[in-house]
Structure formats: C-alpha cells, structure tokens
Write a structure and sequence with these properties.
Length: 293
C-alpha cells in the first residue's frame, strides 16, 4: 500500500490562462492505493458527498485505466471540489504518482502529467494540464502542448475560498472566443513579467504579472463580492490579486509580513456581501509526496 499527498494548485494566475499553475503548501488531498483485481474508489473528507465513486466518473478511475493499474483507491479530500484550487487535479495527480509506483511503471513525473490530465478531462471536458502539472511537479509550471517547464519558487500567497461554488464547465462558457491585439499584447507582457518574477522569487513582479485583460474580467462576474475582495487585499499590501483557476477561490500574492492582514481583509470583504469564506496563508510549495507504508 502507498500513500500520496498531492497539493492544491492555483491555475491561470491571470495572464497564463490554461498554461500557468502553482502548487500550494496547503490544503492537499491524501490518496492511498492498494493493488486490487479491479478498481474501486472510496472518497471521504471535504465535499466528498459531491464526488462520484464510480471509476467511470471519477478522475482517478481514468488515471488507473490509463496506467493499466487496477487498485483500491481511498481518497481523503482536503481540497473542496469546485473551489478553484484544483481539487480534482490533486486527486488525479496523487493517483498517477501512487499507481506508477505501485505497479513499477517507471514513468517520470513529467510523463505522468498528460496521464493525470486525461483524468481532468472527465471533469472539465478538456484535458488541460495547468493544475495537474504543479500538483505533480511542485513550484510554478508552464504547461503547453509541447510539454511542461517547472521552476521551484516559494512566493507567499493567500488563497481565499468563499462558501460558494463555480463549476469549471460554467466558467469555461464565459471565456471569449477572440481578443483584440491590444489585449493580447498587454496580457503577453504580464505573462512574461510574471515568469521573470517566479524565477527571481519576486512577489512584486509576480503580482504585477497577474494582470489579464482577456479571460479574468469575464469570470469575475461569476464570483459575488470579487471586486470588493480584490480591493481589500490590494489595500493592505497584496502585490496582485486574481481568480484562482476557474474560481470562486481568489488568489492574492504578497510578502510574508502581509499575509495575515490580507487574509483577514479578504474574509471581511466576503463577509460584507454575506458570504462566509476561509483563507489559506501559504506559499508556492512542493509537488506530490509519496510515502511507502
Ligand atoms: N485553466 C482552467 C480554467 C483551470 O481556468 O478553466 C480550471 O480547471
């Protein structure tokens, strides 16, 4: 039997829609895998009542199929589904890392990324790797059709999670089909700035580089209180704020000393519009960790 802890992630980071992602120190899913004649899945923990245990409908079932690795898979959810923190991706990432080891498949972490992304396709309808890549590899990742690039970094962040949900499918429906050249130029500039910031571990550059003129403005309308929460975080020192993944989570980048005040300001701002929330004060961190029992 093997146990894998796979971290929550925040995808897009504003300017890197479907490409950028970071692993978060907390929260995380914990997945245990044990060889079995056929795949059986049990789910406990945060929001488990909303997650199907049928292997045909669960991301980890698709991963077990892809690796030809039937197993009894026990998922303990630390990451609530439909939160914008890569909940299904973390389970898929954990299963990929765990089953690869359990069956001695010998695939590298990079090779496991597209396999875990196939599991994601079950949930979002498309196999994009911007959440599974950081959950498997850690740090900041750039996932494109040509592969994944990874940088270790420890940028401080606050991920604020309201008690509301936005489905990835709904959030993808509001993504515009086209953009003006001016908006593309601005967003490419932001993405490049963010990438330099990640390599320098510089929260100012990362925060500035999250500005996105194309996708984020459409999505913020789906998150009650978003503008208020963003303003509140910026007022007390956040260097940048954006939607985490498909939402409704909101991600603030900051300096270590400002984390606590930013977390409080974001929770208060959601509270002002009648929405309860919780905030994770954490850092960009490690990818999936494997433990042998
Ligand atoms: N890049 C994806 C999106 C992440 O924003 O739709 C959520 O799975």
């Amino acid at each position: 039997m093997l146990t894998v802890r796979a971290p929550a992630t925040s995808a897009n980071l504003g300017s890197g829609f479907d490409v950028f992602g970071v692993a978060l120190g907390t929260p995380a899913d914990v997945v245990r895998v044990e060889r079995a004649p056929e795949t059986r899945i049990t789910v406990t923990g945060a929001g488990s009542q909303y997650i199907p245990e049928d292997p045909e409908q669960n991301t980890v079932g698709a991963v077990a199929d892809a690796l030809d690795a039937p197993a009894h898979i026990k998922i303990d959810k630390g990451i609530r589904p439909s939160s914008g923190l890569g909940s299904s991706a973390a389970s898929a990432a954990a299963a990929a890392v765990g089953l690869n080891a359990l069956y001695d498949r010998g695939l590298s972490r990079e090779e496991l990324v597209p396999i875990a992304a196939e599991g994601e396709a079950l949930v979002s309808g498309e196999a994009h790797a911007d959440n599974v890549a950081p959950s498997i590899l850690g740090g900041f990742t750039v996932a494109t059709d040509d592969g994944v690039t990874q940088v270790d970094t420890s940028i401080p962040v606050v991920a604020c999670l309201p008690e509301t949900t936005v489905s990835t499918r709904d959030a993808r429906e509001v993504v515009p089909d086209s953009a003006t050249l001016e908006d593309v130029v601005d967003t490419v500039g932001s993405a490049a700035t963010l990438t330099v910031g990640m390599t320098r571990n510089d929260p100012e550059l990362v925060g500035r580089g999250m500005e996105d003129a194309i996708v984020t403005p459409e999505r913020t309308a789906l998150i009650d209180g978003y503008d208020r929460v963003r303003e509140a975080a910026l007022e007390v020192g956040a260097t940048g704020v954006t939607v985490s993944g498909a939402g409704p989570g909101v991600l603030a980048v900051c300096h270590d000393d400002d984390q606590r005040e930013i977390a409080g300001a974001m929770i208060d701002a959601f509270d002002d519009v009648g929405i309860e929330s919780r905030a994770y004060q954490t850092h960009v961190g490690d990818g999936a960790q494997l433990f042998r029992d």
